[in-house]
Amino acid sequence: MDVDDVSQKPHDRLGAWLAPDMDRVNVLIRDRMASRHAPRIPEVTAHLVEAGGKRLRPMLVLAAARMCGYDGPFHVHLAATVEFIHTATLLHDDVVDESAQRRGRPTANLLWDNKSSVLVGDYLFARSFQLMVEPGRMDVLDVLCNASATIAEGEVLQLTAAQDLATTEEIYLQVVRGKTAALFAAAAEVGGMIADATPAQVAGLRDYGDALGIAFQIVDDLLDYGGVAETIGKNTGDDFRERKLTLPVIKAVALADADETAFWQRTIAEGDQAEGDLSRAQEILARHGAMEAARADAIAWAERAKSALDPLPAHDLRDMLVDLADYVVARIR
Q1: Is 2 among the domain residues?
Q2: Domains contained in the chain, number
Q3: Angle CA(87)–CA(88)–CA(91) in degrees, nearest 5?
Q4: Which among 57, 61, 92, 144 could disulfide-bond with 191, CB atoms 3.0 to 4.6 Å apart, if both were Cys?
Q5: What is the pLDDT along the chain (333 residues), one digit of tens a residue?
Q6: What is this structure's pTM?
Q7: CA distances from 88 to 35, 151, 301 (A)
Q8: What value, to the nearest 5°, has the Cα angle with vertex 191 and ends 323 and 103?
Q9: From the centroid of its chain, how far is CA 269?
Q10: By residue range, what is the domain housing residue 174?
Q11: DSSP letter string, 136-173
């Protein structure tokens, strides 16, 4: 793969530049997801890990470390750590959401059972903590532990906020920072920390990951109401069927008349959905410009991510991270 091929997608170019490091990350992941006593652990883990995905989170660790001049071994451990944390949360999320598809494939809880998904997720969390200790950096450990707690907190907050029509954009942002942006931010931040980057550079990397993660999640919310199943890795309308109060819906609820409020109350708050409700939801979103407003928010967060990289040194990887922020929102421009 030619890293100078500008026709490639940014994450592909990033992956090509980081290929030797990513190969080491993948070897470490395969080694640490093994279990002598419970063969179901590598079976369930491999189903999800080998399903693909862009591996953005581990690549953020590697890119940040390399951009800041790191030449040691432990960026690989930290990259594997964030991938394990991410994979564990996916296993747990699919149980909570009763999902049947992930990355275009049947979910682990569908192929095995909920108990296996939850317990294997727990195992991966434990493995992630073993990995994050190995560099011997308490500051790095602190960031990753806090991110793990924030992720869990965000998921619990979503349980109470997802079907509550009183949920505001501020609460939505708290949920997104927990379920998505926290790990993006931690991945970029610890990459800079392991390289002993300056405080301004570390802060810039953290802010980049935070803004990129928020943009990423808003785009995912938008595509759920207008994407293609093969592109988004799940069925269009899953968020609506799962009664998730995502950003476009929050914006539409804020502008709803009495009839529309009753519709959202029935379909989202009470879960009483009928044939044609998804189409009506899409019509209401369009009527109030909710999709366009959410789209503008996503683009603004992508711009914020790019600006956060200003303290970082000139580097091919920095250019790729800028392009990545643009790419995240390119499908909705």
Answers
A1: no
A2: 1
A3: 90
A4: 61
A5: 333 444 578 889 999 999 999 999 989 988 888 877 787 888 777 776 776 667 899 999 999 999 999 999 999 999 999 999 998 888 877 777 666 666 567 676 666 677 878 888 888 889 999 999 999 999 999 999 999 999 989 988 988 888 899 999 999 999 999 989 999 999 999 999 999 999 999 999 999 999 999 999 999 999 988 854 444 445 678 889 988 899 999 999 999 999 999 999 999 999 999 999 999 999 999 999 999 999 999 999 999 999 999 999 999 999 999 999 999 999 886
A6: 0.89
A7: 16, 11, 26
A8: 60
A9: 25
A10: 10-330
A11: --HHHHHHHHHHHHHHHHHHHHHHHHTT-TT--HHHHH
Q: Is 233 left (phi over 0), alpha (psi -120 to 50) or beta?
A: left
Tokens of 159: 């349980």
Assigned domain for 271 exists = yes
CA distances from residue 153 to 89, 91, 178, 226 in whole angstroms, order as listed = 12, 16, 7, 29
Determine, yes or no, domain membership for 299: yes
Per the DSSP assignment, residues forming a β-bridge with 101 are 106
